[in-house]
Queue: 3 jobs
Job 1
Amino acid sequence: MAWFKREKKGISTSTEEKKEAPDGLWNKCPNCKKALHTADLLENKYVCQYCDYHLRVGSKEYFQVLFDDNQFTELFANLTSGDPLQFTDTKPYVDRLIESQAKTGLKDAIRAGHGKMNGEDLVIACMDFNFIGGSMGSVVGEKIARSIDYSIKHKIPFLMISKSGGARMMEAAFSLMQMAKTSAKLALLSQAKIPYVSLLTDPTTGGVTASYAMLGDINVAEPNALIGFAGPRVIKETIKKDLPKGFQTAEFVLEHGFLDFIVDRRVMKAKLASFLKIVKN
């Protein structure tokens, strides 16, 4: 006889009595598809513990990883984009901005803060891909410019974390102007002999790559990040040739001399702090 015998048939539990797992408790790795517990993911700096895949995260998570005890002062928090062209595609640009602000809790595709990393002052500006694809509009350029001014005024190193699909088409030339503006500000930062670290994450493309993302005193990237100007599909269709294996990955870009090194997010804070300490001394 079996050790277990069902005495009742059709046992059921009412909906009210069912215990559901809270939302957001589990994630799935986009690479290996394994389930990841949120607590483990947080402890592992949002890197898959099975395959080392670096999950895409935003400014909130990068600030948690880099700032000591997640303590920082947010800078220029109230800047918001206008609609200089009264642009409309599938919906008015103003409506798209309002929806993105409600969805992400951000004013635009970038957040800046001043805090300490391993006890040393640092200004970080970090892009958010969830806000209209991390596109570079006038607010992104203005926040970067003001963050650089802040770094120069207080003589504090500047870290730029790029994660973007490129220029924001809804602002046309106003967006493209940010490439020149931020590059000019970085030249002033260099003249002031204040370190600038550029961290390229997945993805960093378009006008962002063609301007401030590649102008660091050191250019650093996360493993397997997509880095390029035009996307690989566009390039393939243009040149009518198959692209090399690993084309536009961080490893490919490093091999061709456009990066200084690739750093795992779990040791990023220590690596960047070591570099800034060397430069300072």
Job 2
Amino acid sequence: MSHYRGRFAPTPSGPLHFGSLVAALASFLDARRAGGEWWLRIEDIDPPRCPPGAADEIQRQLAAFGLHWDGPVLWQHDRGDAYQAALDRLVALGLAYPCSCSRKQWREHAVYPGWCREGVREPGRPVAWRLRSDLGLHPVVWQDRLFDEQRFDPAELGDVVLKRKDGLWAYQLAVVVDDAGQGISDVVRGFDLLDNTPWQRQLQHALGYPAPRYLHLPLIIGEGGQKLSKQNLAPALPTDDGAVRPLLHAALVALDQAPPAGLREAPVAEQLAWAIAHWEVSRIRPEPHRTRDALPSD
């Protein structure tokens, strides 16, 4: 993959917040600085978590911050056939298996102990489909662009679910199939997803997909010391220009890009033009960033 193609892939469980903005902005700048493409994927494979209108609001928020994507939006709810084909291939390779176990049954174990690897323990009960983490790529090693060499034994992470008992597709399989299907060369995302990468690298290897480069970003921490998230009721990003401009500047500060103070009230297009021209991953400090150090004080 010689041509850079990045993506932003939010789950539409609610509007974007400041932590989402930092991740979206970093992936956008990384793509644009490389002269590449930046795609938008809506990861809506879990309908109960996706209230009506949330995906539309996310697109409005991105547009308000000048983060315009290339090509059509990819919706995961349209991709079931592709996920099923990938699962069928893994089953044929002996790398995926049905599992009837419930989390309650293995709650005393740190990870799922693989009880159904040689056959379903409770035939007739609903099954999930799991990846055999004890087979395939071992160890999983990759060079993160910020956090340097990463080395994992996937068996220590357990056999991750690929398809749930309720028939819904799981994140790990969907994200790998879609990154390959969209030709994604570079993944820029939060540090909280770093330990998902071993399963994804195993799946890429098993399915014969190319492996993208990874850049995991330091987390944005709120006043309570927790990661900013929708679950923690992080405030939604505004879409009015007067509030957008200082927040965009604050996101550049959180990414350690040292934007000039005078840029704070500049139009969005001007801020982004400066940010693209000056984007440097090497400036990003690897430790978590607290919002009080970046957000506007007035």
Job 3
Amino acid sequence: MNDVQPSGPIDLTAIATGIERANELLTRVLAEVATTPSTHAIFVDAGYVYAAAGRLVAGTEDRRAFELDAEGLIEAFIDRARTIFPDSRLLRVYWYDGARRRIHTTEQQRIAELPDVKVRLGNLNANNQQKGVDSLIRSDLESLARHRAISDAALIGGDEDLVSAVEAAQGYGARVHLWGIEAACGRNQAEPLLWEVDSQRTFDLEFCKPYVARRTGMCPQEPYAAADPGAAAGGGDGPAPSRDEVRFVGAQVAARWLGERGRETLADLLPGHPYLPGPVDQELLVEAEGLLGLSLRAHADLRRALRDGFWEHLQAQY
């Protein structure tokens, strides 16, 4: 056997130059990957949230018997995700619900108007059962993971049918984190779903209580644990204040906080606009209710006005 001999001397300089260029290219690629922020999205099965939170706080799954502060709860989810994924940016919150003929209800319209929130509707049959929601979640999860639009997905739901959505997203490299609401008894999330996800997290009664309030005039057939005495009683005897009055109270609270806590402390909230950290939002609500002499837990529109007034005053100072 004859060995093939090189036709000329090996150019070590050229080889070294090639290796150096390859290393430079690899370094640039790694640097770009390192500086590219991770992205997460939150996928909320509203039917699960209403049923689980209603059962836990109000003792019933009947939506007609209680009001859910969807805006406040979404903000709490966003705030919690910011803590869990500190080096990641939020793509958006997907809110999946059912509606007759897929026509938005007034409540769903308000949710759809929230920043960073996308409402996706399945159908609602004659028995008030959602149809098509699971397939919407799977479609969005798979598409976003396939296009590398997200690195992490927080999925809030409990149906076993969501297993295929989790598998699809994981198949494209996304990590799926299952969030749930504490069950009043037993479990409210399917075991196969719990087995499939990358991590699990449960929100307890204390987390959920501020966002659920019994509707006045309802006669519950099941035990009811009110969010607070004011919420159970409707919060005061007089008529509800106007949005402008509540907005003014929000500004009052902001002015008081500026004086007590200093500009630097509250300036830290500005990058999170329009969202307030959960503890801050609850403190604002409690202080405003004390000034108004009225619970706002059953008045989602007034809570929005309160936050608007708070932010307007805060932003005017900077």
